[in-house]
Specification:
Layout: E1 13-14, E2 30-34, E3 52-55, E4 82-92, E5 99-105, E6 112-116, E7 119-124, E8 131-134, E9 142-152, E10 170-176, E11 178-192, E12 196-207, E13 213-222, E14 228-238, E15 243-246, E16 249-253, E17 267-274, E18 277-284
Antiparallel strand pairs: 1-11, 2-3, 2-4, 4-9, 5-8, 5-10, 6-7, 6-9, 11-12, 12-15, 12-16, 13-14, 13-17, 17-18
């Protein structure tokens, strides 16, 4: 988190996921891939043994062939587009009933649909954005199948070369049912002087249980030496099955202002606490 002098724009930071209730199972980097469309490829028992094996991140378009007849046109490098399928599987020893499971895509171009164990879990239109789906209800203990359809048939659709396929990493994340929303913590610095900086926090907290809960959200600004330079706590009532937005404000005295010559960074540490238990912890840089 940068604390900038007043002559520069305030910074807005999205929080990076951290703090799982259960260690997430790892997805293999290698997937089965086919540059064609199959009506049954989403089904868990589909036979993909004849498909190509690829590493993700993966872009099928860059492999060509180059052809002036390809629909991507000049702005897309005259490279092929179309529909591609990816399939993989992963193991879970046992599904934890107190956890939520997310599948997180750093990026896929474009119009992506995802199935887990043959069940559609969501669709992300277009492609210039990271996205995730909650797959808790589709998971089972043991082996799970994962199928992804990426559709870039309607080209050209950009002013430059966008690529085709899953161009970013794919990961599984696990969090408690009492949690911070994925990418749900934002930080701004609306007021800054050499003597004082105001740090405004906006955090979205989820209660994915069937019981109302009372919690405390703790926030602390930490400097580059790991010292806590500002902190606050807010009591939060979290209705069952709802999201609550909390907006605390912190004050940092005599802040070290960021500049290209002195790129000083702070972190915001936030956590949700119920009783003596930390339900979820995050760091925002």
């Amino acid at each position: 988190m940068k604390i900038l002098p007043r002559c520069l724009l305030p910074v807005v930071c999205a929080a990076v996921f951290s703090g799982c209730s259960v260690k997430p199972p790892e997805l293999p980097a290698r997937w089965k891939f086919s540059l064609s469309d199959f009506p049954r490829a989403s089904e868990s028992d589909f036979d993909d043994s004849g498909w190509e094996t690829v590493d993700v991140p993966h872009d099928w378009s860059i492999l060509g062939p180059y052809d002036r007849g390809n629909p991507s046109g000049g702005q897309g490098g005259y490279l092929p587009t179309g529909v591609g399928w990816y399939r993989s599987s992963f193991e879970i020893g046992s599904v934890d009933p107190d956890s939520r499971y997310l599948i997180v895509f750093d990026g896929a171009f474009m119009n992506t649909r995802v199935w887990v164990n043959g069940k559609n879990v969501g669709q992300r239109p277009y492609g210039y954005i990271s996205f995730y789906f909650d797959i808790t209800d589709e998971l089972k203990s043991g082996a799970n199948s994962l199928a992804v359809r990426v559709d870039n048939e309607k080209a050209p659709n950009a002013r430059w070369y966008p690529g085709c396929g899953m161009y970013g990493n794919v990961a599984l994340a696990v969090k408690n049912r009492i949690n911070f929303d994925q990418w749900g913590i934002f930080v701004t610095t609306p007021g800054i002087t050499a003597r004082r900086a105001t740090v405004a926090v906006e955090a979205a907290l989820n209660n994915a249980t069937e019981i109302d809960r009372d919690a405390v959200m703790e926030s602390a600004v930490v400097d580059m030496r790991g010292r806590e330079v500002a902190s606050c706590s807010r009591k939060v009532h979290m209705p069952a099955g709802k999201q609550v937005v909390v907006k605390p404000t912190l004050r940092v005295d005599n802040p070290s202002l960021w500049s290209p010559d002195s790129p000083y960074l702070y972190k915001l540490a936030t956590r949700i606490v119920i009783g003596a238990r930390v339900m979820h912890a995050r760091e925002t840089e």
